[in-house]
């Protein structure tokens, strides 16, 4: 069965004066409104969220959202795959429709984080890691620093190539009305920003963000009833890597990216050469390199060249992170994977405004932990399968 | 497609000197061993858990478990539906197989709670509720007290009838080697135990528990390769009620129990008259009454009579909570819904030892929050569909 997306929405990302319940309801109700679907038509509600309990002392948010949207007696469930919770939500929504369990599944991803300071938020996120690594101070940013150092040394890549990822994604974010930072930056500014985890500097990291995004899923038959234009899920899959990062043979590759990507490619019938636009998980600039390579968009050790050559810019052969990416759009954990697919839906349906590129096949890669689990979604305009 | 259960396991429930990772790995690896299935055959790993972050400061436990069991690159995801996380896991596992996303899904549910005192644990659980109700002191036990008072008054039911639920479930738990309390209690002891939330007393409440349980799912074709005996999922479904309990028209009925039950009955083709054994969510004794009525096992307001008549005892017409129920077996939140189905598998395959009853159709009802979301699973011996 082909599973379709007939609605998509996202809130403004950034520092929001709203709690998680309000953020989820904002994206969820706007998604239903835009699709012209009544809350009563929703029979499954999925909420992608990593840590509302830890961040806000509020659990049961899927039941709260069901109530706030007016979808009961619809079934509701929360999905957590750390920073890949959104992508895991897309996979779960696909399963709910494809299995026949649901006729109409609303997925809402969100996180409320900025009321905690950066150190406290980083600590919640670091609880993803192996307890032994955590005790030694290995937060996610410090893993990124180590991987970046090894990558630059191994492949003789210039430090500036990482800065170019940030510069490109900031340039894209300027045209995204929902992005947290709509601000151009230069390679020089990035290279002179404060060191966070050597060799990575402030502009190599995504910010702490509040926000939410939503998608509405159904079968092709139902999609035709509601929508003239919609998007098909061509393939979706996920994979895990070692939980202990130091057990990996080569920390400059992410096995779960390669494996999850291979599975999604196989399910879709597409390969990297077919992808026209991609949203990659640039929580740290180095991750955009590792995903470009793991997904077959660049040779191992050459993603820095691909980036410097301009291939991943908006007018390049493979625009990457037209939304601004996590770097400039922001990274509200549970929302990010959903917002990646939102951007692809907007691009495929020609609604991306100043960000619009020419694209028929889109790919989203959502990374949990430091590549501990990765989900991949490939989409195309509806009606082709 | 018929989805089958070819493996089932649970750890000892109670006060365990082990962290959540260890508990999950214990049930997960034992489940694979008992089924004779290699970790490498597992392609989806689901972890039902409400609050490892809040209870233990550890998140990403599905990735940790994947690593500990040796299932990578299998996909992994955590499922949260508060105290119904286990039942939600069964529903998600069903969807993963029925959709074709997975050929072999391992579900492990667990929670580590006893290192926190009862007040702290109750507070984590109370974060499920609506913030306004929470601020007024409405924890789950206090909701139960209010509902019990209203039920006893409305239906002129004797207080002793609630005690009989506890006495029955304790009697069953004596024969469950994994139960937290293997101890007979009398109606008199229950009636004289300390008041917790008037009219409910200590013996009306399940304990705080550590523990884990696991189930292994696949299609019928795959089941036949691995197992001579297995169990089929005849129907599984879920439903939500209002998040704000005081908005319910009648707090002595649980709309999500009735609706979730109706959906599972419809999918299975069975009705309440076909069910031979049931595991109900007796987190509080009053909940066993509300579920007996909501699922059609007793007339509204008459579950207390059904209980006093002995119909739900092990030698009655409809044995309820042969495992000992949450009351005596214990209630490690994310594990409970999985352990309910474990008990049904043992009963249907004739492996329940001293607890064995004559049963061909079993039903599990797992309640999230105070009936905010409920999941229902109906199982039968394999090969009939």
Give the chain pair forming the largest contact, with residue counts: A-B, 61 and 61 residues
Order of helices and strands of chain A: EHEHHEHEHHHHHEEEHEHEHHHHEE
How many independent structural domains of chain A? 2
The CATH superfamily of the largest domain in chain A appears as Thiolase/Chalcone synthase
Shape of chain A: globular
CATH classification class of the largest domain in chain A: Alpha Beta
In percent terms, what proportion of residues of chain A is strand? 15-25%
N-to-C CA distance of chain A: 9 Å
Architecture of the largest domain in chain A in CATH?
A: 3-Layer(aba) Sandwich
Q: Find the structural class of chain A using helix and strand composition.
A: alpha/beta
Mean pLDDT of chain A: 96
Radius of gyration of chain A: 19 Å
How many β strands of chain A by DSSP? 11
By CATH, the topology of the largest domain in chain A is: Peroxisomal Thiolase, Chain A, domain 1
Total of DSSP H or I helical runs spanning 4+ residues of chain A:
15
Low-confidence stretches of chain A: none
Helical content band of chain A: 25-40%
Biggest sheet: strand arrangement of chain A? 3-2-4-7-1-8-11-10-9
Largest sheet of chain A: 9 strands, mixed
Regarding quaternary structure, what we see is homodimer
Question: Could you characterize the architecture of this molecule?
Answer:
The structure is a homodimer of 385-residue chains. The first copy, chain A, is of the alpha/beta class and 385 residues long. Chain A contains 15 helices and eleven strands. Chain A has two domains: 3-116 and 208-231, Thiolase/Chalcone synthase (Peroxisomal Thiolase, Chain A, domain 1), CATH 3.40.47.10; 136-207 and 234-381, Peroxisomal Thiolase, Chain A, domain 1 (3-Layer(aba) Sandwich). The first copy, chain A, has helices at 20-35, 52-56, 61-69, 85-98, 118-126, 131-135, 140-155, 159-173, 187-192, 220-226, 255-268, 285-294, 303-308, 325-329, 333-348; strands at residues 3-10, 44-48, 75-80, 104-111, 195-197, 200-201, 211-219, 231-240, 277-279, 362-368, 373-381. In chain A, the strands form two sheets. In chain A, strands 3-2-4-7-1-8-11-10-9 form a nine-stranded mixed beta sheet, with helices on both faces. A two-stranded antiparallel ribbon of chain A has the order 5-6. Chains A and B meet through helix 3, strand 3, helix 4, strand 8 and helix 11 of A and helix 3, strand 3, helix 4, strand 8 and helix 11 of B.
